[in-house]
Write a structure and sequence with these properties.
Shape: rod-shaped
Oligomer: single chain
Helix content: 40-55%
Strand content: 5-15%
Structural class: mainly alpha
Length: 1507
Amino acid sequence: MYSEWRTLHLVLKNDQGHTSVLHSYPENVGRDVANAVVRPLGQALNAPSIAGTESILKTDKQVKWTMEVICYGLTLPLEGDTVKYCVDVYTDWIMALVSPKDSIPQPVVREPNKYIQIILKHLQNVFVPRQEQIGNQIRLCLQVLRSVQKLARDSTSMARETWEVLLLFLLQINDTLLAAPTVSGGIAESLADKLIGVLFEVWLLACTRCFPTPPYWKTAKEMVANWRHHSAVVEQWSKAICALTSRLLRFTYGPSFPPFKVLEEDASLIPAEMDNECVTQTWFRFLHMLSNPVDLSNPSIIGTTPKFQEQFLNVSGVPNQELNQYLCLKQLPQIFFRAMRGVSCLVDAFLGISRPRADSAPPTPVNRLSMPQSTATNTTPPHNRRHRTVTVNKTTMKTSSVNTTHSTKVQQQASSTSPLSSPNQTNSEPRPLPAPTRPKVNSILNLFGSWLFDAALVHCKLQNGVNRDSSMTASFIQILLSYKSSIATQATVELRRKGSQLSTDTMGSSTVFDANEFPDSYEAGRAEACGTLCRIFCSKKTGEEILSAYLSRFYMGLVQGLQIGEFICHPVLASIILNSPPLFCCDLKGINVVVPYFISALEIILPDRELSKFKSYVNPTELRRSSIHILLSLLPLPHHFGVVKSEVLLEGKFSNDETASDKPVTFLSLKLRLVNILIGALQTETDPNNTQMILGAMLNIVQDSAFLEATGNQVEMIENNLMKSHSRTNSGISTASGGSTEPTTPDSERPAQALLRDYALHTDTAAGLLMRSIHLVTQRLNSQWRPDMSISLAALELLSGLAKVKVGIDSSDRKRAVSSVCTYIVYQCSRPAPHHSRDLHSMIVAAFQCLCVWLTEHPDMLNEKDCLKEVLEIVELGISGSKSKNPEQQEVRFKGDKEHNPASMRVKDAAEATLTCIMQLLGAFPPPSGPASPCSLVNETTLITYSRLPTVSKYSFRYFVLDNSVILAMLEQPLGNEQSNPSPSITVLIRGMSGRHAWAMQLCHLPRAARANQRMFIPETRPEPKNDVGIKYNVKHRPFPEEVDKIPFVKADLSIPDLHEIVTEELELRHEKLKIGMAKQITYEAGLDHMKEEEFQKKSYPDPVTECKPPPPAQEFQTARLLLSHFGFLSLEALKEPVNSRLPPHLIALDSHIPGFFDDIGYLDLLPCRPFDTVFIFYMKAGQKTSQEILKNVESSSNVQPHFLEFLLSLGWPVDVGTHPGWTGHMSSSWSINCVGENEQQGHEEAVPSEDTGGSIFNGEKKVLYYADALTEIAFVVPSTVESQTADTSESNVSEQESDSNMDLLPGILKQPLTLELFPNHTESLNSTQRLSPTSRTRKTPHGRTVPPLGPETKVAVVWLEQYDDLENFPLLDLAAETSTGIETTTNSSTSIRNSTPEKEVPVIFIHPLYTGLFRVKVHGASGKFNMVIPLVDGMVVSRRALGFLVRQTVINICRRKRLESDSYNTPHVRRKQKITEIVNKYRNRQLEPEYYTSLFHEVGLKSCTP
């Protein structure tokens, strides 16, 4: 910068302005004259009585003569008051330029600049070191410095010449005292801080009022370089440059840039009147005032300045001189660290990153004193964080004695402090993001790169044989080799320059002072530089280009810093890890070449439980957290790159196989090592947050492996199998230093080796990973993690996620998961009463939910008796508070004998929900109607519609309630499609706690086969008679046998005379008459018999009059009465009120004619049977800030990335809002039962043309994306702008959505290229005020539909970021209106979403696509005890395959936790149960038993009216 300018060294050397005429006389002459002349002047100033009198010196001649005497007096020994009087007089006189006083001689007042220039030169004599009375000299020096300081601050008429003399005066006195090696207890050590402070302050004042010329800057730079062995030089330089930087950033980057705040005392160093151009010029010159701070790491440079060499070579016979020099240079490591910490502060200021050392003194050696962390945490959401503060406080002086005093505190502070510079504030606060308007990486490296790159390689022994394959084209290696040669050349030059006194090796350290004698070494400064470089490169913006030379130097520094084995440097390694969490998420070119080194570093950090070698440098928890972040970003690489081979081999290889050391190895070979690290980390981790991150990573790797195998990538699978033996034997150790790691090296004996033996055989496949994960998590869930709520919830979420992984594993492993959850519930329920809290019950509820997930995903598990028994016992425990059979007790306590004492009502509700899940969902989901609803899509209206009988109305239903929990709606009239079947039939709508279910029942008396062939009952016919069988004989029957005629009469026989013997004429007439009558009668009867005989012959057989026939079957049935009677509900006991109970009878009737009955039934149907969640998905293009810009992106596929559309369809399947029976994202259109026929729906679909869309079709107007399983349902909505006309139309037609099918625009995404515009071009000209969002207006609820209160609103925002930095600008508050679900109107009197759901409570998942095809995830907004939700955590990198699944699973878990946290949330079955109880109490038909029985025989619908 000043190469063409000469320095002022010769001017200073030849200037004799500090000598007096009296120096030519003998010493005693000058002393006597000075004593005599100065005393009256000094007494006049100090005596109060004459203090205000005029000076006795009146003329120029008198003043000049007196000044010659005072000049000599300043060189005298400090005995007596002469020197003090001289200083008093001069410090009084130089105030002539500030405020002239009577005590100042008039000539001085008239020409102050002339005389003050002379005075300043004379005052140099005060600072010449003296051997005696050091205390007095220090006081006098301070008096002079204060006066000079006041002169520079307050003078308004100082001439340029005076300013220049003043600056030279300060440079010279500093050089006099500070250039020589420090003497312990000497004046230089005491005054260094004040000397440098005044020099820099006056210099900055001069820059404002009289900008120094280049020779002065060059002289100052060269002189300051000779003083750098004083820590005060670096401290004061750091303070001044930070104050300048604060001013510089203010006007360079504007008010939106995070202010770089410094202490008020430091900020006052920069004059307020200094203009912006002056600040810029001064800042750049001051930045280089210290020369190259990396020189501080080289004692051979610091120790070979002229004053050092002069003292070291010229002084002989003084044995302690070498000791002094040794003590002086011993502070260099600490000074080097402070210098690099100062540079680091500047870099952070330019990046806009706040630092943890806000309330501490930054420059302290890391291994001497741990830094207290900032107690202030930043809770501002990133969207509103516009003015973050970067603070640097005043640096306090730490002498070696102070450091020694505090060194014993290292162990106590190590657990809670983080001395290395890491941007992490506290355990719970996320890493702050760099400012969006920060400068480019290249710009920062142009300023600080040369220093940082050199400092990052301080004292590194670069290894030989870095690359043995000449065919590799790697500029990285060439740069590394050229750097080695430059180091060697520099060493040779140094060696020639210093001769035999001092020699330099490759490390550049002095052989006089061996590195082993410096306990602090230079690791702290090197670690600071490496950490700063990592932060710089991690701040790369999306799409930003970085020079290849910078990348190569950076990777070289990483390679050296991540060395393990004998070259390990723990502070550097820790600093790199702490500052590199996002390193693999920044799309740095070629970053994957350092992957093996990071893996090797993680292998010695994460599986190490104690981290004893790092404790003195860094908080082990923070180090492990950063390591886990790096691991999260490395895990997808093996699957993603697969068999891709590394183009560049750094130091030989990716693995340890010596036989393949020269061959490129695939990324897939790293998988086992990464999995081993993950498992080892889980086994050794104790911090809750860290553990949850590992659990999230575990689900990520298992699911990704499962998806990969499911897609049938045979190439990768074959490669994996080929690498098995190779990986199993070598993945535990990695060589990062030329293959020279020895097994006997303590650092090489890492826990990963032990872990390898256990897990290598199981983790090659997805099934093995799944099995291993289940074993690990279940074992720890019931041991270390049981008391911790956050870890327990995360572990249960992981188990739930593992249950959904579609990989076949042994049933015993699945049973292990279920059994462990059951054991966990038993343990938590059995804890003592004082431990029972809401948090404990939340853990139990979460465990029941996890149990439901496993059972619904694997229903066949309950086919095994022991598993079913264990699950049902746990349900019993949750509902009643105890098991019927305990191992301790032999007898069994039956259900009726037990006293119900559940852990809490929430636990009881969760257990009941589990029982419902087992009894009603297992094996029955999804139903034939689809997963959108577990209920029957039938209600009274539907049955009436399909019943073709005109007399059926809603009053045709009989309503009964069973056990106060189930409402039965019975329709006795047969439906139109059942007319041909004469069997008694009934249609029952069963509304219970689990939903609405329709059953159509028939009374069956015959087997199924008989019913199929016979329509109604017909008795069997009789057989026809056969009259022609046998021979028919005509026989005349006699009353007596023939023998009677042969018997002779006797007298007795003749005693009765014959009739003719006694007859008379009269009798004869009567007899004849009777005879005729008898003949006629005989003839008549014979004819009658004949006629009857003929009639009988003509009759059919059998005689229908006389035949016995069965009664005909009944045609009209009161099926409701029959059904209830058959079930035994019509007994007197069932109808009586229970004794001593408020519960109604087992069976009661409801009166449907009471007004409001059907409204309440409809209200009950609107209560969902599953939890429902809503996800709002936004697409944010690079640089966008307003909500309207963001909403317009999804209008066309040309505005969004193709992967975004693929991501949308991986979340759920498209559904039509108008006909969808599940949750649609808004209350007004959800859970509707539609009557659109299939043919009509298909007709609509065929008539609709396909249109182009970027996702806006799923805005909730016509379509949404939907996902449902047995336990939850989610609607994914993509909000977009909509024309006002469209909004008005849809607003008026919302009530018709239940009966009209909406147009199907899905084929535009699924079936053909996305080429058409979604909206006509004229919409572009509409103002933003003319555009409405479908959800920003007040959506009308269909007529007559009451919206029930459904508890806490569970919604999540997912934002797709093209540029990662834009997440700071995401307008969540402005988009709040777009995330309305209609629930907030029922939970809050205000319809404003801002009141019901504050911005900070809306969780946001940011997704940023990387150039590699992977995706970076940022999760924001989770607060409270339920903060960290898995599987997606901050900083995670996920594959394209697993992204949809992981986002969906995270959303489910976020919403589950929100419900757990809510005091007002009731599970769906509880809400339905409460509503059923309300309906029973409100509409109960209170009748006596006789009336009740009578009503059963009456027809319903007597008061019928049209529904």
